[in-house]
Amino acid sequence: MKIFVEVEGKQHEIETTSELPLMEVMRDAGIPVLASCGGSCACATCHVYVDPAWVDRVPPKSPDEEATLDGAFGIEYNSRLSCQIAMAPELDGLKVILAPDAIG
Amino acid sequence: MSENHMIETDVVIVGAGPCGLFAVFELGLNDMKCHVVDILDKVGGQCAELYPEKPIYDIPALPVVSGQELTDRLMQQIEPFKPVFHLNQMVESLTKLDDGRWKMMTDAGTNLVAKVVVIAAGGGSFVPKKPPIKGIDAYEGASVFYSVRRMETFRDRTIVIAGGGDSALDWTLNLAPLAKKLTLVHRRDEFRAAPHSVAAMRELVAAGKVDLRIAQIAGLEGEGGQLSGIQLKDDKGETSVVQCDALLPFYGLTMKLGPVAQFGLNLHENLIPVDTEKFETSEPGVFAIGDINSYPGKLKLILSGFHEAALMAQQAFRIVHPDRKLRFQYTTSSSDLQQKLGVAA
Ligand SMILES: Cc1cc2nc3c(=O)[nH]c(=O)nc-3n(C[C@H](O)[C@H](O)[C@H](O)COP(=O)(O)OP(=O)(O)OC[C@H]3O[C@@H](n4cnc5c(N)ncnc54)[C@H](O)[C@@H]3O)c2cc1C
Ligand code: FES
């Protein structure tokens, strides 16, 4: 599957078959995601904005993710922690923007 | 503590995370006295700061233990060795003295001299997260504060506190009686903080003593380093301005390598390379254990740091007690070790 990640206005296309969290897929592809807690939903530095067309198609937020988002900045309705979105075939084509506070 | 007061000890441990704490135990068993420094106001490192309530399942023989409980148990285990803690202090420098010992200075003016230094700095020192708001730097120190050193600084000021965790709520409760006016800004009407502080904050809001605004900070207004107001944006996108002359953002802490980078040790990708026999750095007598070190096959796990502490303590003994012979003993059967632990019959 393909995913599209925008970092500081630049588009990146990632081809993957992984079912790991989006944060790890981005990191493995060389996207500079800070992710300082290593994916344990504790730091909020893997913050992404999910493309409006995809907001309802990614798995919903847990209360823990919502609470951890309190430590992020510029939160919008489509803000998510990318370490909490497991990749899956139905997310083929997913588009996200890496939030400024998640750029390492 | 007086500025020039110098503390001399066997070992200084930089970082009171789980690995720094367990090092006190291994060093103590081998007759070395420790001082431990941490920038946090509490011990436990990541376990206590980032996930006190979350369960850990891979500590040998503890099928499940929370971050805070692990910390509490380590404190109980090292109690017999009476470590001295210097909390709320950052070790800023490390220099070698002519007699071979090491000198460290903290940002609070504490001077420490030791024969051995153990860097157990984890992912670096914990520092407050800085909101990525344009121009915020210009206000820091005069109008924007990431911590409260003296409450009096805030008397009769018009304050905005941002955030929804324990720090935001604690300082709302503490500063509301002093402030001319206090506004608490949080992005949602739910707070991840101690329930009694949330209840106390709600009472102040109901009594008109604190203003609660459900919104996010969009920008700052002011000039010459002095804030005059904060632009807010609510979840409908409506903007407004709150007058204020002080802003306290509490968005949690993040780890930055910090002064350890200037200690003069070899670094590789912000980690300190060590050997796997002694866990010594490029400087003999300076060791690195836990998340901060790197070697082939390193796993950033608490249990790795515990193992590293035990091996490090062997070499530290040779430096601290050069005239003594190192003995290998079990705590189960050695009356000598049991005496040190205060459990001898
Ligand atoms: C959410 C989460 C879940 C985790 N789950 C597990 C798990 O299940 N199992 C597991 O084994 N590991 C787990 N870990 C990893 C584990 O917490 C770390 O491996 C461990 O905390 C490392 O311990 P440490 O003592 O090396 O460093 P840390 O815990 O990072 O502590 C280092 C301390 O040093 C201080 N410090 C640094 N520099 C200075 C300075 N210059 N002056 C003063 N103080 C300084 C810091 O403030 C900090 O308190 C998890 C981590 C997170 C974030
Ligand atoms: S990596 Fe820390 S919350 Fe996602």
From TrEMBL, chain A:
Give the range the annotation lists for the signal sequence.
none
Q: Which residues form the 2Fe-2S ferredoxin-type domain?
A: 1-102
Q: Name one GO biological process term.
A: P450-containing electron transport chain
- Record's keyword annotation contains Glycoprotein: no
Q: Which UniProt keywords apply?
A: 2Fe-2S, Iron, Iron-sulfur, Metal-binding
Q: Which domain of life is it from?
A: Bacteria
Any single GO CC term annotated in Swiss-Prot or TrEMBL for this entry = cytosol
The cofactors required by this protein are: [2Fe-2S] cluster
Q: Which InterPro entries match?
A: 2Fe-2S_ferredoxin-like_sf (IPR036010), 2Fe-2S_ferredoxin-type (IPR001041), Adrenodoxin-like (IPR001055), Adrenodoxin_Fe-S_BS (IPR018298), Beta-grasp_dom_sf (IPR012675)
**PROSITE patterns with a match to the protein in the record:** 2FE2S_FER_2, ADX
What molecular function does GO assign, one term?
Answer: metal ion binding
Membership in a protein family: Belongs to the adrenodoxin/putidaredoxin family.
The record's section on PANTHER family has: FERREDOXIN-2, MITOCHONDRIAL, FERREDOXIN/ADRENODOXIN
Its name, as the record gives it, is Peptide ABC transporter substrate-binding protein
Protein species of origin: Roseiterribacter gracilis
Automatic annotation (TrEMBL), chain B:
- UniProt KW keywords: FAD, Flavoprotein, NADP, Oxidoreductase
Record text on cofactor binding: Binds 1 FAD per subunit.
Q: Which Pfam families match?
A: Pyr_redox_2
A GO molecular-function descriptor: NADP binding
Per the entry, which co-factors are needed?
FAD
- Keyword Flavoprotein on entry: yes
Q: What class of enzyme is it?
A: oxidoreductase
Partners and quaternary state? Homodimer.
Q: What is this protein called?
A: Ferredoxin--NADP reductase
Name the source organism.
Roseiterribacter gracilis
